[in-house]
């Protein structure tokens, strides 16, 4: 999953027009340096948010590139997550100082495509080697506008010791989830942790509940909300009950993408993603935990969501071919980094099938194999909704969790705000087509 970057008032005019150079492939241009000017040194600006655990792996890869390409250097910079996910990127682009290469989340993807910032990357990707859904998620009208590099599906983690002591089986249905959460809530321990704070991550972890009930956020035409349905109302209502009845905390100190609550014993169950395996291994190696699919309503179909950041190239930059060359090298040509990122250092599936095959020695063993065999096959890509849609869904969830609204009332609240926004929306389709 990915946090969303706020729009920050950036306009289509501010972003100007898409660079003509983005249509040319690296192969067609020959040496990337030739397109920039013979004998000139190029320095590419590569930005992402700071992640203490992951950044050393990327820095090592950047060093290998820089050592081998003295005329095309990469300046890798990270920024505090709250700044990067807030206004860092949008402010830079508004001032015409946006980086050549940057990471973008599904929640911000559409903004950058609609404003002409995203350069097509079709010429540096062998689409046949990639998961079709991951390609569709970053494609608009047949063109790819970012390179996907990770797939992190969401599941339900649970403490084996806590459930075992209580004689409770991991829940498979919503009724079982409510019953288990109630039984396992005692003293300082909550039965379950779901994300209580509004934002892209909360929506991300709620989508599997909505989808398994048969609900959707936006209709197939991208012209109106699809939330005015009993299915959507039931998903809002479930999360409302978990918090209102005290089975899930209404406040947490950090984003629940961190598996700390489960590891520390503050909760018996936690909704979290594939990345939590690496977190638990590093921070709570003695904790015995299990993983199951996200519970479904009666008659519902198992489904989850996978998230993941993507790498985008600035179409307005002066070194697009060089940025293409580095991006292609980093994720498809370097012999070390793609595997390090997926399975040697992290727990992330790759949308590139070859990388997952190279990681088979990890992914075929528990607990990774649970995700590979049972959870990933049911996963859908994180929606690429713009800020306004994300906020509307979040407003509905907050109303259900904290304002005593029924699921139907919460769904109607969100739907009304989405319809108002989509009535004047003229950008790329919100729902990708495969």
Tell me what you see in this structure.
- By secondary structure, this protein is an alpha/beta fold.
- The chain folds into two domains: 12-148 and 309-347, Periplasmic binding protein-like II (D-Maltodextrin-Binding Protein, domain 2), CATH 3.40.190.10; 154-304 and 384-422, D-Maltodextrin-Binding Protein, domain 2 (3-Layer(aba) Sandwich), CATH 3.40.190.10.
- The chain has helices at residues 12-15, 26-29, 32-36, 55-68, 81-94, 106-114, 132-137, 160-166, 174-184, 200-212, 230-244, 260-263, 276-283, 320-333, 337-344, 353-358, 360-363, 368-375, 387-402, 407-422; strands at residues 42-49, 72-79, 101-104, 139-140, 143-144, 147-148, 152-159, 190-193, 267-273, 289-292, 304-307, 310-313, 379-381.
- Strand 1, helix 4 (55-68) and strand 2 form a beta-alpha-beta unit.
- Residues 2-38 have low confidence and may be disordered.
Describe what is shown at a glance.
The chain is of the alpha/beta class. It has 20 helices and 13 strands.
């Amino acid at each position: 999953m990915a946090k969303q970057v706020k729009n920050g008032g950036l306009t289509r005019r501010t972003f100007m027009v898409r660079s003509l150079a983005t249509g040319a492939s690296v192969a067609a241009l020959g040496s990337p340096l030739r397109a920039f000017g013979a004998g000139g040194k190029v320095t590419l600006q590569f930005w992402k948010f700071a992640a203490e655990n992951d950044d050393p792996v990327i820095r090592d890869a950047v060093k290998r590139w820089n050592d081998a390409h003295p005329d095309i250097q990469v300046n890798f910079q990270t920024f505090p997550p709250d700044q990067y996910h807030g206004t860092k990127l949008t402010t830079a682009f508004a001032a015409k100082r946006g980086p050549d290469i940057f990471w973008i989340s599904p929640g911000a993807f559409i903004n950058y495509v609609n404003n002409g910032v995203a350069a097509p990357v079709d010429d540096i990707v062998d689409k046949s080697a990639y998961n079709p859904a991951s390609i569709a998620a970053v494609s608009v009208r047949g063109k790819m506008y970012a390179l996907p590099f990770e797939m992190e599906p969401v599941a339900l983690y649970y403490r084996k010791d806590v459930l075992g002591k209580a004689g409770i089986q991991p829940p498979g249905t919503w009724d079982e989830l409510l019953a288990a959460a109630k039984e396992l809530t005692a003293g300082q321990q909550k039965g379950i942790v779901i994300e209580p704070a509004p934002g892209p991550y909360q929506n991300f972890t709620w989508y599997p509940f909505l989808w398994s009930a048969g609900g959707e956020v936006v209709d197939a035409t991208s012209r109106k909300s699809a939330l005015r349905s009993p299915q959507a109302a039931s998903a809002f209502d479930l999360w409302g009950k978990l918090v209102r009845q005290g089975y899930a905390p209404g406040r947490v100190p950090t984003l629940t993408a961190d598996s700390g609550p489960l590891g520390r014993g503050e909760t018996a169950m936690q909704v979290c993603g594939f990345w939590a395996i690496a977190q638990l291994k590093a921070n709570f190696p003695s904790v015995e935990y299990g993983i199951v699919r996200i519970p479904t309503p009666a008659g519902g179909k198992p489904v989850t969501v996978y998230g993941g950041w993507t790498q985008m190239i600035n179409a307005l930059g002066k070194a697009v071919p060089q940025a293409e060359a580095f991006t292609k090298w980093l994720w498809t040509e370097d012999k070390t980094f793609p595997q390090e990122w997926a399975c040697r250092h992290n727990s992330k599936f790759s949308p590139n099938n070859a990388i997952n095959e190279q990681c088979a020695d990890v992914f075929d063993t528990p607990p990774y194999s649970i995700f590979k065999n049972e959870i990933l096959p049911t996963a859908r890509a994180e929606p690429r909704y713009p800020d306004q849609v994300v906020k509307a869904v979040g407003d509905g969830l907050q109303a259900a969790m904290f304002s005593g609204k029924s699921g139907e009332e919460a769904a109607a609240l969100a739907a009304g705000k989405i319809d108002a926004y989509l009535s004047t929306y003229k950008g790329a389709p919100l729902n990708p087509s495969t």
